[in-house]
């Protein structure tokens, strides 16, 4: 079972350290952030399974940050705030929060709420890169997310099927992170790729292996000795090269 990656967003250093340490002691990977810029840096860098977001972030408003994030992606968000009146909680839910925890809180209660949100939301939602205006560069290749154009290192356009493109997007959003076949299959469900007519219509483990093989045939120099999309023994697959993301 994969370890959850939780982003802890609080401008109070002591609170941020306490929460990250507690989550790490309880089996999660906790990533600290103090503001929206750091939040986006973590999201761009790789997978985030859940965000614990403080409502009052100095000069920044956690509600507005939640609203902007929710318009871009489906990563679960739990708002944390000393403001606990019913109308304040409703404001949190209105901007897309999955839960709302009032300060001061019992750490064990917070952990239970985190587990509950993770259990009812598909982890694959955070695997899918929602932004559609970026250009990705990897190992000499480039992928334009807006036009869905894939160019080889020789600047030759390579045609990918809908499911191959969806798989590539998931991998580009999670470089160097081993993904299970189940995670990949669920992420294709999120993109709607599993509903498209294609040679491989199921999202079984075998179907994912076939899909990975087809993508390798198009982006690897030697598909039988892949250097980009590698097999991770005992897990699944890993996109084993660096990915540079450029905003248009």
SSE map:
Blueprint: E1 5-9, H1 13-25, E2 29-33, H2 36-45, E3 50-54, E4 56-57, E5 60-61, H3 62-72, E6 77-81, H4 86-94, E7 99-102, H5 107-120, E8 134-138, E9 141-144, E10 149-151, H6 162-173, E11 179-180, H7 181-191, H8 205-219, E12 229-232, E13 236-239, E14 244-247
Parallel strand pairs: 1-2, 1-3, 3-6, 6-7
Antiparallel strand pairs: 4-5, 8-9, 8-14, 9-10, 11-13, 12-13
Describe the structure.
The protein is an alpha/beta fold and 248 residues long. It folds into two domains: 5-128, Response regulator (Rossmann fold); 134-247, Orthogonal Bundle (Arc Repressor Mutant, subunit A). Helices cover 38% and strands 22% of the residues. It contains eight helices and 14 strands. A hairpin with a 3-residue loop joins strand 12 (229-232) and strand 13 (236-239). Helix 6 crosses helix 7 (181-191) and helix 6 (162-173) packs across helix 8 (205-219). The radius of gyration is 19 Å and the shape is elongated. The relative contact order is 0.11. Mean pLDDT is 84; it is low at 194-203.
Features:
248 residues, alpha/beta, Rossmann fold, five-stranded parallel beta sheet, 8 helices
Low-confidence stretches: 194-203
The biggest sheet amounts to: 5 strands, parallel
Number of helices: 8
Shape: elongated
Q: The CATH topology of the largest domain, please?
A: Rossmann fold
Number of beta strands = 14
Q: Tally the structural domains.
A: 2
Percentage of residues in helical conformation: 25-40%
Gap from first CA to last CA: 36 Å
Q: Can you name the CATH architecture of the largest domain?
A: 3-Layer(aba) Sandwich
Mean pLDDT: 84
- CATH top level of the largest domain is Alpha Beta
Q: SSE order, as H and E?
A: EHEHEEEHEHEHEEEHEHHEEE
Fraction of residues in β-strands: 15-25%
* Name of the CATH superfamily of the largest domain: Response regulator
As laid out across the biggest beta sheet, the strand order is 2-1-3-6-7
**In terms of structural class, how would the helical and strand content be classed?**
alpha/beta
Rg estimate, integer Å: 19 Å
